[in-house]
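Bumping with the actual sequence this time:
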Amino acid sequence: MPASVLAKGNAGRHGGGSMSGGKHGSALRQRIEVVEGDITRQTVDAIVNAANTALLGGGGVDGAIHRAAGPELLEECRMLGGCGTGQARITKGYRLPAKWIIHTVGPVWRDGRHGEDDLLRSCYRSCFALVEPHRIRTIAFPSISTGAYGFPMERAARVAVGETKTFLERNTSVENVRLVCFGSTAFQIHGEALEEVFRP
C-alpha cells in the first residue's frame, strides 16, 4: 500500500502503511499531499498561479484562477509590474476560498539544456519565500510549466516534490503543501514522484 498521502478532490484521503525514516521523516511526509481536483476550489491559505510574465491572465490554470477570483484580481495584478521567470508575486485571493494567490512564472521547456530545471526550482523557492512573512500555513500548487509551456511532467513532478521536501525540512509552521493535479495521469505521476523522493 502506498505510504504517500493521496486524495481525490478535497477529501477522501488514501494512504497508510509503515513509513521509514523515523518520526521526523514520517511527520514530514504527512505534510505533503497529492490531490486530483480544481485548484480554484482548494480551501487553503494560499494557492499558486502558474502565470505569465505580464500577470494579466491567460489560458489554463492562469485563466481559471482569474475567472474564479473576479476582476479585482486583474486590477491588483496590473499594479505589480509583471514578474520574471522563476520569480513570484503575491496578491489577495478575492472571490476564491484561498486568502492569497501567489503568482509564479515557470520556464518554457526548450530541450532541458537551457536552465529549465533551475528556473522551475526557483519558482517553488520564490513561492515558499512568501509563505512565512504572510503567515501561510496551507498552500496548494498546480503542476507548474507542464501545460502550454511543455515541461515534461515526470521531471516537473520530481522538482515539485523535491523542493517541497527541502522547504519543509527547515520550516515547521507550514502544516500542508498540496500538489493539485488536473486529471488522473497527472495525479499518478505526482504520486509516483512523492514515493520516489521519500524512498528510503
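The C-alpha cells above came from a reply further down the thread. The first helix runs from residue 22 to 29.
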